[in-house]
Amino acid sequence: MSDQTARPRGRFTALIVREWGTIAFTILAVLFFVGSFGLRGESGYFPMGVSVATSIFGIVTLAMAYGKGDRHEHAVDEADRLAWNGRTIRTLVWFAGALAVTYVLGIVVGAAVATSIYFFILTSVRPAYALLNGVAFAAFIWVVFGKAASLPIYDGIF
Amino acid sequence: MFETFSAALAITTTPEGLFLIGLGCVVAFILGVMPGLSSTEGMIILLPFTFSLSLNESMMLLCSAYAAGFVGGSVTSIILGIPGSSVNLATMLDGHPLHRQGRTSYAISLVAVSSGVGGIASILLVIVLLPVMQPISLLFGPVEWLAFVLLGLVVLSLSGETSMMRGFFSAGLGLLAGTVGLSVVAGVPRYTMGVTELWGGIPIIAAFIGLYPIAEAVFMAASRPRAIGETNDGTIQAQGSHGRQVIEGARDTFRHGKTLSISTILGWFIGVIPGVGATFANFMAYMVIKGISRDKSRFGKGDPRGLIAAEAANNATVGGALIPTLALGIPGSLNTAILLGVFMLNGVQPGANIFTANLEVTWVILLSTVIATLLASGMALCIGGRAIAAICRIQLANIVPMIVFISCLAVLLARGNPFDLFLAFGLGAIGVLMKIFRLSRLSFVIALMLGPLMESSFFQALSLGRGSYVIFFQSTVAVVIWALIVICIGFYAASRRAAVADGALAGGDEK
Question: Can you tell me the distance from the alpha carbon of B365 to that of B67, in angstroms, rounded to the nearest whole number?
Fold first, then answer.
């Protein structure tokens, strides 16, 4: 159903909902412009010029999206769509946890633990099988990267 | 030149060299077979291995992965009717019907031989042009280089993943990200917010890894299990033996020599243009060959010319893409951006010195690409349908841990700084947002990589012109490039307006 006759305020709100990411990046470009004033001498010229151009491109992009109204509701490729469901949320939580575990325990043990958690939570595999996957993955990394390349892969906080 | 060629030939044909080329080939071929993955993921997975290798060894590993990934994806397109990656879309149109007719080995033979010929011919073209490239690269001073980089970013934005304005916006964001760190002009920290780890700027490896594999891993992990059909439901009868079909395919490839030549040359030229990669070449060659053929009735039903055109063109882009990368240091795709990143990490700046002090590395790149193309073509002929189906049954979500941790290793090994890991994941979040809001990550990454060099060229040019901006329009080469930029934008705007007027598109924002 076309919202060409929708009140401007409705279309504006719809634009913010659809393009909040583009708006955030445009604001970021404007912040770079503001920040360039605090830079000494010639170091500010290039970021100033680029941030002005980038902000204009961002505003024009948003203006074009606003002008199209509901015609902007194109068919988004499945690959570009991130479905916000339980699986996605668990994935993102796993990412954050994997990063923290790897940083704290070191890449080898961290990889084993994080991989086990992944297989257990995200793929609904039995805990023993998940742990086996994690240990195998850690062993793979140790053999290939540690033994073969003598690389420092045990670094962590501990 | 002959001495460096001999030295490079000796390096690439040692057991260690052949092992590295073979490894790159196998990894990229297998990943290319898996729908949704390509040679780019293969190169990223192999990236951590390169940090303990010399530049020659790194190039052998990465260039073989670059060349082999295209061939793997085409086999999936033929057998399963699913494009292995975007560069194999047109391959599917005539490849899968041939499989349904029981001529699978014939189709794979067409692909293997035309890929091999297209890839090797494109490298030979580069070799022939090598003596010419050095004088041309010497014509490029700071003004010309700045103009050419802008041309590359404009062309990337016009022909890339999203609309023109979003492409420009993404490139602008990348240039801004490139200003983070110590200023190339005044040496003062910019936008570092007091974080000393950012004084060196945003590391390019962390940017690659964050924006591509880590961002893609989020989508992969959240993806639904993919149902892959059987390769043969029992109703497909092979038409003749495997060996006979292979020979017939090889013979027919050369019988359609005109198709092979036109597609190879078209693919090579498309590869030279930054941003216009193998995906475009694959389809463009198919449409051109179909357009000039008298008998079009078999296209889409198993016409060998369709397969030959698509595969020769997409492999020919490999040689073409190496021209701006090696001669001018301007990558036209993520694959060549990764190669350029490894060059920079090893302290080698592409440009005129690639043809003088570093000519041996150039020969190593070209020779390893040739060997890898031959190897990948051979693998395509030997691998069976069952093996393909088995590889394709691996769900993308299940390889996420491997991709994430190898990516973490690549980031950690690049600078040995754990801060880079957090930066990579932060950029991963940005990559997810960019994909959702249809902003071009490729434009961002290439602008990030080239931004500091652009800025220093800009100020070098200004000092040559004693502060006058007229210097940017005094060189003939630069004026031609500025004119090309205006023509490209004008042509794009005119074609979009015509398409909208014809009702072909609902709006001008999306491709």
Answer: 11
Q: Kindly report the number of other CB atoms within 10 A of residue B317's CB atom.
A: 33
Q: Which of helix, strand or coil describes residue B38?
A: coil
Q: Is A151 near chain B, with CB under 8 Å?
A: yes
Question: Which H or E element spans position B408?
Answer: helix B400-415
Contact A94 B432 (CB under 8 A): no
SS3 B161: coil
The predicted complex's ipTM stands at 0.80
The DSSP result for B250-306, as a single string, is HHHHHHTHHHHHHHHHHHHHHHHSTT--HHHHHHHHHHHHHHH-S--TTTTTT-HHH
Q: What is the pLDDT of residue A33?
A: 92
Q: What is the pTM of this model?
A: 0.80
CB contact under 8 A, A42 and B186: yes
Residue of B nearest to A67 (CA): B507
Is A87 part of the contact surface with chain B (CB cutoff 8 Å)?
yes
DSSP class of B355: G
CB crowding B407-426: b at 16 or more within 10 Å, else e = bbbbbbbbbeebebbbbbbe
Mutate to test the interface with A, among B146, B153, B169 (most CBs of A within 10 A): B169
* DSSP percent split of chain B into helix, strand, coil, nearest 5: 75, 0, 25
- Residue B189 has φ and ψ, to the nearest 5°, of -70, 140
* CB spacing of B190 vs A54 below 8 angstroms: no
Per-residue pLDDT at A3: 46
Other C-beta atoms closer than 10 Å to the C-beta of A100 total 12
> Which one-letter DSSP state was computed for residue B166?
H
Burial of B36 (0-12, 13-18, 19+ CB in 10 A): buried
Decide: helix, strand or coil at residue B189.
Answer: strand
**How far is the C-alpha of A50 from the C-alpha of A32, rounded, in Å?**
9
Residue B154 has pLDDT above 50, yes or no: yes
Q: Does B472 touch chain A (CB under 8 A)?
A: no
Chain A hits for B439, Cβ within 8 Å:
21-22, 25
CB contact at 8 A, B290 and B97 = no
Contacts of B469 in chain A (CB under 8 A): none
| 3-state secondary structure at position B84 | coil
From the list A21, A24, A57, which residue is nearest B168 (CB)?
A57
Q: Does B52 touch chain A (CB under 8 A)?
A: yes
Biggest CA–CA distance in chain B, Å, is: 76
User: Residue B68's Cα: distance from chain center in Å?
Assistant: 12
CB contact under 8 A, A50 and B508: no
Of B166, B222, B404, the CB nearest to A61: B166
Arithmetic mean of pLDDT over chain B: 82
pLDDT at B259 over 70: yes
Residue B182 has φ and ψ, to the nearest 5°, of -70, 135
Q: Would the pLDDT of B509 be above 50?
A: no
Residue with tokens 């439901």: B233
Give B-chain residues touching A75 at CB under 8 angstroms.
none
Residues from chain B that touch A85, judged by Cβ atoms under 8 A, are 222
More confident residue, B414 or B59: B59
Give phi and psi for B14, each to the nearest 5.
-75, 160
Report CB contact under 8 Å: B169, A61.
yes
> ∠ at Cα B272 (B267, B275), nearest 5°?
95
The two structure tokens encoding residue B194: 């007091």
What's the pLDDT tens digit per position in B230-255? Answer: 455 555 666 677 778 888 888 999 99
Tell whether A39 lies on the interface with B, counting CB pairs under 8 A. yes
Q: Does B397 touch chain A (CB under 8 A)?
A: yes
